[in-house]
Amino acid sequence: MIGNPTTTELPDLRTCEQARLSRDARFDGLFFTAVTSTGIYCRPVCPAPAPRREHVVYYSAAAAAEAAGFRPCLRCRPELAPHTDALRRGDTTVARALQMIDAGLLDTQTATELARRLAVGDRQLRRLFVARLGATPMQVQSTRRLLFAKQLLGASALPVTQIALASGFRSLRRFNAAFRSAYRLAPSALRKRAQAPTHDALVLRLGYRPPYDFAELLAFLRARALPGLECIDGDSYARAFGSAQHPAWLRVSAWGAGEHALRLELYGAAPGDLLALVARVRRMFDLDSDPHAIARALGGDVRLRALLQRRPGLRLPGAWDGFELAVRAVLGQQVSVAAARTLARRLLERHGEPVAPAGADGLRWLFPSAAKLADADLDGLGLTRKRVATVRTLARAVQVGRVDFAPGRALDAQIDAWTALPGIGAWTAHYIALRALAHPDAFPAADLVLRRAAAGNGDGDALGARALEARAEAWRPWRAYATIHLWRASAPGDSA
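RESULT FIELD:
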């Protein structure tokens, strides 16, 4: 008899069985298959011969499978699976908690502090996690660390000591003990089984669920790219990051060979930053969304149904840095994309941090910090006095923590905090939430291009903002994806 689902987040048993037997990549990361006869858990796409039905138990999260005593498969490598998006997106308590865990909160804080920030009791949070994921917050954190370590052991030439640091362990002894306890082998033994990397960069495979329109996402980012800070061609995205004293750069491209994954190349990144960097790239390129769940939610609208069929792989185009995106959103208020890009380029060239020597593709700038822009000379850039005041107000608010880009805050709270700043209206606040925070329900309803695209009559008429908001109630909690589809349906260059 097939094991019963451990949480309510699993697809039904028939769907799990069909996906497992057909190795359906659309379900990769949405559940894991544990095999009682071997003590191993796998992704539904595992190429190994399918186990017998009576030996299978399904889990909605890798942490649940590991909490039940199963070890990750060395063939399909569960650490490469995309995350379960439905659990990590939106404003539920579990979603907000997972966002904080992914951002590294439990690296330095306790589960009690996590519960306090969510305004729930310690026991209540634990019960919610067990009910939804089949594992406690600390078990989720432990699995997150160990699976990332497992990925680095197989993909990098980093010393085991640095891999322990990169995975959030404060000592090699603790790392070795945790790894042995969970996987019943030493980290060095796993490394011996892996093929030794032959490249200079740290190259990581970042999986996603198909369909995924990487070319369309690159096109969106390319239209807004700042030379010297970013370089976007037809195949990849590259940018500088780090500090002027310790610069680094990255490149993101398709993995190739028909694989449902992107290739992340990191140069100069500190080992202790790797886990956070990977989480940032996954968010920026929206690698954990479930396009089929989104299509089911939005497909009831006739206009959106046609757009979803035309471009089923559209994702949210995220941003590398929240402050950078917020400044550029202010610069883009009521002007075209090209004009906003020109203003941002001028600001970067005057106040950006120079990187020497320049990285590949002429990457020579870092975006200025909030501290630098708070009192910066912005005259002569082409900004109105009001825009200058708003940029400075924004920078000062970020400096003192009045607004931030920390994950785990509910959308309404984020919008209220941003719109309390002079010069920041609902459009700008929702745009920041959509791109900097990757909130799936952010919705700049006042956007004229959005209202025209939603009308869909081709004569330039636009729905009223209130009418669009009323219509979009049926699109929750995925209104941000509806926004991207409607913007893409507009004439090139018209979207925000």
